[in-house]
Amino acid sequence: MARREEGHIRQRSQGSYELRYSLGVDPETGKRRTVTATVRGSISDAKKELRRLLHSVDQGAHVDPNRATVGEFLERWLADWAAVNVSPKTGERYGELIRKHTIPFIGNLPVQKLRPVHLSSLYAKLQRESGLAARTVGHVHRVCHRAFGHARQWGVLPSNPAEQVKPPKVESTEIEILKPDQVQNVLEAVRGRFLYPIITTALATGMRRGELLALRWQDVDMERAIVRVERSLEQTRNGLRFKSPKTKHGRRTITLPSFAITELRAHWKAQQEQRLALGLGKAAPECLVFARFDGEPRHPDSFSREWSEVARGLELKHTFHSLRHSHASQLIASGLDVLTISRRLGHSGPAITLGVYGHMFSNTDDQAARALDVAFSGRT
Predict the structure, then answer these.
(1) What is 180-360's CATH number, 1.10.443.10, 3.40.50.1010, 1.20.1090.10, 2.60.40.1260?
(2) Is 377 or 317 the better-scoring residue by pLDDT?
(3) How confident is the model at residue 5, as a pLDDT?
(4) How many CB atoms lie within 10 A of CB 300?
């Protein structure tokens, strides 16, 4: 389709540009309709946004930023930004939070009239009328903060109203950790089942569910007793996909304890025997460590249901993620420093580790005082 006139860009002030472009001829008046929009950023940002706007006009999907409702803007944001900048799983979650908990309440409001008070009222209604937990309302706030932040960058809003609103406070909850006797009960309950080697590896490494299900034999070096975390398995409405870790620290190498090596060797042998019996041949390096019997990936949701059945049978309320917490608690109890623990868990930094497990670190302030005595007073 031939593109309409390219539009114009005019700098209004430092870091602010006015875009002027045509929507074509109005069928009712016969006059050409021209609209403007403001973009904050560089000239490159302005050019990129003008191209996007012109493309939306050509495709018949244009929404005038001066007339759009909150609902129209959020749908556009999901389609134009979220769909290409976050993982499919995250995009699905954003869509759910927006379409289920945001648009029904403030979707008809003109986006340029959106104010902090509207978001404050939204959060109160979600708790009071919809019965949402404070944590879920916090998720709504974060997605609104991100979307309306882009509205400000794109010139749709003069400021981000979510910056001036605080989500409801979330009461801290105790992290679920399996006690040693509970761990033994779990292992006895799943011994001989496909869950057994996955659970032992989870306890030994603290790896997440998706990381374990994406693990390949080429990522395991049993001679050096290490496992490399290179990717994760994600389940979306469109099926399964392998993805890279969210942060650079998510891609990491973990040293394996001896019991994990023993179990992985036994699992390797059993898997090869099963494959040969099924006529599949020996597993190649790229084959999954914890695959289904036919070599295909296990569905994360189905795997979690299997775990839940085991937990219910043992009268445990712990999720599979509790194994990761249990791993971390043992590292902390052993006196390992927070930086090492953070890197082993694949956190983006020690601050994340302290935020989750800080209460587990013992108070060693008395040791600090003694250390200062030794260093500065000459006493031992």
Answers:
(1) 1.10.443.10
(2) 317
(3) 52
(4) 21
